[in-house]
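Continuing the series of single-chain predictions for the mutant panel. This is the parent chain; the variants come on the following pages.
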Amino acid sequence: MQTNNTAARLPLFSNQRPGWQRLLIWGGVAFAALNIVPLVFHVAGNLFGLGNALRGWGSLLLLVLLPFLPVLGFLLYLPFHGINLFRTAANSATAAFTRRDDPARGGYLYDVRPARMSWLTVLTPLPLFIVLGVLTAGIGMLFWPALVAIFVLPGARYRKPVTIAVSAHGIESGDVNLPLDRIADLEVGNNGVKVSEEPLMPGRGGVSTSAMVGRGLGKRQAERSYTLAVRGDGQSSAAVIAGGLTYDCAVNLQSDIHNALARFSAAD
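Parent structure:
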């Protein structure tokens, strides 16, 4: 029996596509247009003898459109939770948290504010890519957000404000809900690496894992990319409950929540 595949392929610009796909498609179209139009003026000026007028107009148009090219590049961040980077861009360079009473659960609520991404990491390579953009009709500018993405996108999904509920019922934060008797550990990490100030190698040359993480990543960005995760009893991996933290904030939050859980466990 012959079977027919009734699943129709969506048109390129169909409204049934996910929003992030439509954004990428239109961003690609706009990027191509912004690069082609100035080049058309340059070529037309040479082919049809209009010379300096069209070439000058093409150069002017290129300079006007140049600032918009990196914006199109940054739109590529959105499928990778890059929106969190922009939502927290005005935050302080230091993460912070506050604890308040939670009458509904009989415990505490921790309001955590992450640190912003490092503007130094973002802006330092910009002058070089502006020059490349002028020399390559704007194409070189797209490499600026691509390079920056290597340092700022890891951990972007956790760089957002969160509220953590800690009570005799356990820990609740976003999709994480772990009963008190199932909590095995609270871990401070950085991009999947559990960190500690204790040296991995004894002696004067010993280096802590927190220092190694800072060397391996862009140091200024790594200093504000710590996470706090909770691991359940019998589980090999931990679930992140707060991210985008500076080291001191992550350690203090870990200690405060640990003490609160100890009090609730002792009261049972």
